[in-house]
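The following record pairs a protein chain with its ligand, 4-fluoro-L-phenylalanine.
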Amino acid sequence: MEKKRSSFTGKIGFVLAAAGSAVGLGNIWRFPYLAAQYGGGIFLLVYLILAVTFGFALMCAEIAIGRKTGQSAINAYGQLNKKFSFIGWLGALVPVIILPYYSVIGGWVTKYLTVYIKGEVAAAAGDAYFGGFVSNVGPSIGYFLIFLGATALVVLLGVEKGIEKVSKIMMPILVVLTIFIAVYSMTLPGAMEGVKYYLIPNFDGFTVGKLGKTLLAAMGQLFYSMSLAMGIMITYGSYMKKDVSIEKSVRQIELFDTGIAFLAGLMVVPAVFAFSGGEADVGKGPSLMFVSLPKVFEFMGPVAGRIVGLLFFLLVLFAALTSSISLMETVVSIVRDKLGWGRKVACLVVFAGCIALGLPSALGFGVLSHIKPLGLDDILTFFDFISNSVIMPIVALLTCIFIGYVFKPKALIEEIEIGGQFKAKTLFTVVIKYIAPVFITLILVSSVLDAFGIMKI
Ligand code: PFF
């Protein structure tokens, strides 16, 4: 029997809910370290170009699929064409991989919140602090479980509306605080080098191989950050009213999401240059924010540093929670739909599964640090790579081929035009039909060959 779908109240409800899912650790934790790792300005430029072309077209497509069918991802593809429901399944795999390791990072944020509550401003700024924490079995598992448990509890009790309300107040504060820290960070002695590194593309010594890797990293980041290629936006679209403009909503979500990521980079990258080894340190990876920001907070002095640090990690925790809740909701609803389980049982099973899948990532910086799957730095980076750089591009590619050649862009353009004129429809069609498929195939194949050591790019 068809359940009646609830819908978002008006335009702003949709934009805020989608932005709540989009803005999270991807923007604040992941974007800055990738930008730092992949050449600063070049990464930023590539990301922005991809966001207004690929990101825009794909998000319009996913929301339109959802609104047209009124179904969540797996059923939506099936309804449009039975043979293609596997795209929905493949997309559904992404949140299953992301949620466990997302909760590990959420645990790190929780840990740093407690650090600033206790006022350990100077200790947290020490060079060995982060490494000491993540390599210690008890705390690294403990904080992971706290974050995952909190997420599961909210989903179990069905109180995410409450959390979302709080986060709607917290998010604007997060933006203001991020701007404040970014400006402070840029004015630190030695930070200007970092600002230049982040803003000005430097093509010296830039090879085709590096470009390929940068493109793949930027594309994976784009999908991750905008919650694309994993079925989430299809589900959100299914709740959207027909008279709301998909095009305008997508522009707004994109502006918000990219704006926060940009600011986060401006906050973290100059700090690396001011306090650490500059270019030598920018390749640090997942730990970057947790190593560089505490140094900024320490520089503010013990009292101001404690207040700003506490506020910052509290706000980031809320941003992370709204995202992890939407990830878990997605997984729970798939389990319920397909297995017919009740909410409680489904929640508990997903929770247990996430613990099992997340433990290796949590331990990958300590007792399991010798395990380097595919030669990547650690287990967490491996899961991150598989979801963002392998499965998501494949899902995006299949979606483009399906829309471009089987279902045809025209049918989606009609859906989008119900809510008003679709100004960028030519861009939409060209990206979906030609640019995206060719481009994604090229970088996907080269990067997989590279990862398996078959071809060095
Ligand atoms: N977009 C989120 C972020 O940038 O942190 C990550 C995410 C959240 C992906 C929720 C998917 C999702 F359903």
